[in-house]
Amino acid sequence: MRNTRIMLVDDEERLLCTTKKLFEKLGFEVLTCSSGKEALELLEQTDVHVVFLDIKMPGMDGIETLQRIKKKFPFVEVVILTGHASMEAAVEGLKLGAFDFLIKPVSMKELLENVEEASAK
Hints:
Distance between the termini: 12 Å
Strand content: 15-25%
Order of helices and strands: EHEHEHEHEH
Number of strands: 5
Radius of gyration: 13 Å
């Protein structure tokens, strides 16, 4: 499991840095992006197993990014993270192939459980 490569996609720089450091302390390789466009470009260059994706971002939002990831990289598991919870977004994300939908703030334990379950899939 520790050879699982994780990508964090969020426009909140503080969240990216903190979460990246926590995952790295646990032995994971972690890539970070601040936009959906950047995430898609990085996925073209690097194998990633699990993506944690924010929904509300400037430019391309998380739902559109999810659609593009699943179309081009169908075996990458995507977990949607959002501080703006709505049932509509959760249902839409899951219909589009998201592995799970988590509401911020989320504990490291929840993130780790999602990595374990998604990489086992």
